Amino acid sequence: MTIAELISTEVVKVPLESKVKPDVIRELVQILMDAGKINDMEAVVEAVNTREELASTGLEAGIAVPHAKTDAVNDLTVALGISPDGCDFDAMDGQPSHLFFLLLAPPDQSGPHLAALSDIAKIAGSRSFCKLLRNARSAEEVVELFLED
Predict the structure, then answer these.
(1) What is d(CA 77, CA 82) in angstroms, rounded to the nearest whole number?
(2) Do residues 131 and 7 touch, judged by C-beta distance below 8 A?
(3) What would the DSSP string read from start to end of 10-43?
(4) First-residue to last-residue Cα distance in the chain
(5) Which secondary structure element, helix H or strand E, spans residue 7, and what is its range?
C-alpha cells in the first residue's frame, strides 16, 4: 500500500497549530485518534517519543517522518500535518520542518512500514511536489495533490 492510498482528509491537518516538536507529535497522534485509527493515544505518543530519542526523524528539505511500531494500530497508518511557518524538529540540515508524516505500524509488519518510508523518500526528492504540499490550504487540496501525482 502506498502513502497516497493512505492519505485521506481525515488524516491530514492544514495548518498544524503546534510550534514545538513534542506538541507536533501529540497533534499528529490526536489526528489519528480522532479518525479512529489508533486505540491508545498515550501509548502511541510514548512510542514515537521513544523513537525520537534514538535519533531525530527530522530529515532535510523541510520533511520530518516521526514513526514507531506499536500495538495501538492494526495496520500501517499515516497522518500528514503541514506547518507553513515550520517547526524546529532537529532536522539533519538544521532547517525548520514543514511537512510531517507520522507513520505507525504494528510490530510484526516491517514490510509495509519500510515501503511507506521509501514512498516518503521519493516525495522528499520532488521539491516541486513538496512545495505544492506546503502551499496547500486544506486537507482536500492535499488529497487532490496525492491523487494527481
Answers:
(1) 17
(2) no
(3) GGEESS----BHHHHHHHHHHHHHHTT--S-HHH
(4) 15
(5) none
Question: Is 90 exceeded by the pLDDT of residue 6?
Answer: yes
Cell of 76: 500501517
Q: Which residue has cell 506546503?
A: 134
Tell whether the model's pLDDT for residue 92 goes beyond 80.
yes
Compute the distance between CA of residue 113 and CA of residue 67 in angstroms, rounded to an integer.
Answer: 9
67 forms bridges with which residues in the sheet?
Answer: 103
Q: Which triple of cell numbers denotes residue 54?
A: 534514538
Give me the active site residues, please: 67
Amino acid at 54: L
Buried b (16+ CB within 10 A) or exposed e, 59-70: bebbbbbbbbbb
- Decide if pLDDT at 113 tops 90: no
Q: What is the identity of the amino acid at 138?
A: S
Distance CA 97, CA 77 (A): 21
How far, in Å, CA of 28 to CA of 37, rounded?
Answer: 12
Query: In the 8-state DSSP scheme, what is residue 63?
Result: E
Distance of CA 52 to the CA centre of its chain: 13
| Nearest Cα to Cα of residue 21 among 69, 54, 57 | 57
